[in-house]
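Propose amino acids for all 291 sites.
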């Protein structure tokens, strides 16, 4: 108790940080969020998923209209940024590609898929159904079930597989392949990797965080150092490559405080504090903020 200073805004990942999985009960997270929202603390859920996967697509039903005035959602790797008006979620800024741009992203990912198969005999699957990016499954025979976040043994499994297929450069090589393939199609893509998936699109969690932080700062004067950022995927996957929550660290937000609830060993970005404790640790933090 009393370990953390009081924050005016808290940005946090959903799956693996606030809840165990997308289908897990949300009651405890809601219970810890409500008092802070009533006090005027800005709470920002930042997730790669869409609104349908946040509290079953019914997040507004758990809060009063007054509480929702202080809740924001940054979803879909930069695609959707929501505030609430009269108790309803409203997109105030989006980064959705037009059909030509999305088609180009699909072609880039298929080219990566073919290149890995042709040159190295390395099998991948592609999820094409995302609105602004594709997920290239680097471990199609490995299943996460309901726990869609990074699993502890996935890094070693993928590294061993890349080595076995003689893919030079490891994950950095895959990121470079994605960037170079994008440029062949005349597009600057922003690839990320969480071991199982190489995700290729035109935006990332950085865009969500920056867009919502700027909105909050303009409306309330909140500074980055008055913000906390929580996630479970900060850990380094390879030299220079960190998990998806590391994208919450931007030029605009780097003066904030960053906390990782993951127990996975490894290096974090500079300034990120590993607290461990999984979902329970984050929910305890929320409770400490209003006690």
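Proposal:
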């Amino acid at each position: 108790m009393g370990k953390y200073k009081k924050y005016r805004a808290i940005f946090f990942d959903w799956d693996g940080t606030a809840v165990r999985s997308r289908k897990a009960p949300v009651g405890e997270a809601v219970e810890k969020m409500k008092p802070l929202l009533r006090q005027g603390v800005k709470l920002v859920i930042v997730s790669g998923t869409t609104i349908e996967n946040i509290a079953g697509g019914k997040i507004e039903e758990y809060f009063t209209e007054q509480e929702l005035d202080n809740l924001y959602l940054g979803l879909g790797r930069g695609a959707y940024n929501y505030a609430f008006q009269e108790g309803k979620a409203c997109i105030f800024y989006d980064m959705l590609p037009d059909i030509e741009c999305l088609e180009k992203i699909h072609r880039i990912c298929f080219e990566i898929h073919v290149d890995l198969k042709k040159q190295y005999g390395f099998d991948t699957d592609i999820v094409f159904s995302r609105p602004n990016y594709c997920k290239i499954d680097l471990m199609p025979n490995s299943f996460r079930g309901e726990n869609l976040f990074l699993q502890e043994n996935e890094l070693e499994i993928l590294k061993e597989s890349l080595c076995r297929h003689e893919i030079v450069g490891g994950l950095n090589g895959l990121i470079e392949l994605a960037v170079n393939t994008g440029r062949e199609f005349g597009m600057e893509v922003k690839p990320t990797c969480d071991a199982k998936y190489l995700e290729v699109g035109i935006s990332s969690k950085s865009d969500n965080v920056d867009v919502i932080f700027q909105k909050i700062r303009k409306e309330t004067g909140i500074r980055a150092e008055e913000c906390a950022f929580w996630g479970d995927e900060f850990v380094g996957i390879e030299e220079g490559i960190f998990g998806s929550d590391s994208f919450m660290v931007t030029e605009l937000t780097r003066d904030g405080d960053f906390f990782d609830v993951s127990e996975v060993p490894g290096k974090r970005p500079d300034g990120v504090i590993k607290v461990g404790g999984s979902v329970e640790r984050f929910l305890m933090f929320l409770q400490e903020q209003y006690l």
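DSSP finds seven helices and 14 strands in the chain. Residues 179 and 189 are 6 Å apart (CA to CA).
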